[in-house]
Amino acid sequence: MKYQLVCKKCGKVIGDFATWFKQDQLCECGSNHAEATYSTDYSLLEQLCTCSNSADNLYHYFDFLPIEKKENIVTLGEGAVPIEEWQFLADYAKQNYNIDCKVVVCRNDLNGGSGTFKDIAASLAATVFKENGVEDYCLASTGNAGTAYSTYLAKAGKRFHLFVPEDMYQDSIDAVRATGQNLIVCDGNYGVAKKAAADFHKEQNVMISAGNIDPIRIEAKKTLVFECLRQLGRIPDVYMQAVAGGTSPIAYEKGMREIASTYPEHKMPRMILVQQDTCDPMVQAWEWATENNFPEGFEKNYPSLEPKTRISILSAGTPGMYPIVGPIVKNSGGCFLRVKEDELVDYGRIIKREKGIYLGPASVVCFAGFYEALKQNKIKNGDLVMLNTGEGCGRAQWFKEEIDK
Ligand SMILES: [Zn+2]
């Protein structure tokens, strides 16, 4: 067998996804946290990650993904998106802070499925389901994941039931309806949608997303580490993104552990994760930990907030993954930062002026975070900084309209 799922809690070897699904995505010890390991020789990774190698999608890394047969691949051209250098940000850092750095941006808006970083996870999910005969799936989502899964599971001919909060963008609702999947708009916030999906899972016996630590999502998103090697020839010194759930930083850390034996010279980047001031529970938890010198078990202390944000995809008020993400950030030498939601349109305008493109509001949270990181002296001379911008503006027309005002 090419891969095996191993329980993160008790270390038991669970087996493949067929077994994992049969066990309702739980280890015998009750834990829902499993990780894929590979018997593939990692020297092969070096060939895949050479800069001269071109890639069409994330299945460039088939040998390090948890699927056995290429014929099961469901793809719309996702992953392997350009990581572009944005010189104007380096110029800004030099002119205003006298810092020499290089800034690159991962253009997830160019993903082929729905134009977000979620596409790679949805693509791998559709592929894994096809390989393992899963016909029905349900998920609660605040927007991007739901749209991506609707798109890919429709392409794979799988039924999908999506539970969304009442404030989901109309553009996302339209996009999901267009796929013909089953959309349930709940009477309440994301928490209500999650409860409705969990009830549906139990009553209808339909498989449900395993959340932010879902090994499918982690395995898909870890390929960004490989993409850094392939496109940049190295791992950045600083990795930045807007954070809601926290799958992507968990996945990046997993990817770094996978390359450790092949590329011992590369270190985990300093993770700088950004939230907007209208929904910033991880930032608040981090500030508390900083003020208290990171006491033992600091990661278990976090608030649960009622979000007041218009950015529905960044409206996770209860940061359930902070106990995993907090220590990853700490060990990386990074931090959490806050930006102001009412300044985001201005930052969106800078991107439009400099690059001629519109990024979605969550991407602009990450972008604004770079300016905040400079202000707080978190960027150092010689740093290669990567901004992992998660989405374009396709399904946030209100944001685009405000930028154009
Ligand atoms: Zn276990």
CATH topology label of the domain at 83-113 and 216-404? Rossmann fold
- What's the pLDDT, averaged over the residues? 95
The SSE string, one letter per element, is EEHEHEHEHEHEHEHEHHEHEHHEHHEH
Q: Please tally the helical runs, counting DSSP H or I stretches of 4 or more residues.
A: 15
Q: Give a quick account of the main beta sheet: strands, pairing sense, barrel closure.
A: 6 strands, mixed
Classify the secondary structure makeup into a structural class. alpha/beta
What's the Cα radius of gyration?
A: 20 Å
Bound molecules: zinc ion
- In the CATH hierarchy, the architecture of the domain at 83-113 and 216-404 is 3-Layer(aba) Sandwich
Indicate the low-confidence ranges by residue numbers. Answer: none
Q: State the shape.
A: globular
Q: Please give the CATH class of the domain at 83-113 and 216-404.
A: Alpha Beta
Main-sheet strand order equals 4-5-13-10-11-12
The strand count comes to 13
Distance between the termini: 56 Å
Strand content: 15-25%
List the main descriptive attributes of the protein structure presented here.
405 residues, alpha/beta, Rossmann fold, 4-stranded parallel sheet, 15 helices
Characterise the protein shown here.
The protein has a domain at 83-113 and 216-404: Rossmann fold, CATH 3.40.50. The chain has 15 helices and 13 strands. It has helices at residues 17-22, 43-48, 87-97, 118-132, 144-155, 170-178, 190-204, 215-221, 223-232, 247-259, 281-291, 322-332, 344-355, 361-375, 397-404; strands at residues 3-7, 13-15, 34-38, 83-85, 102-107, 136-140, 159-164, 182-185, 207-208, 238-242, 270-276, 335-339, 384-389. Helix 8 (215-221) packs across helix 10 (247-259). The mean pLDDT is 95. Bound molecules: zinc ion (ZN). Zinc ion is lined by residues 7, 9-10, 12, 27, 29, 31.
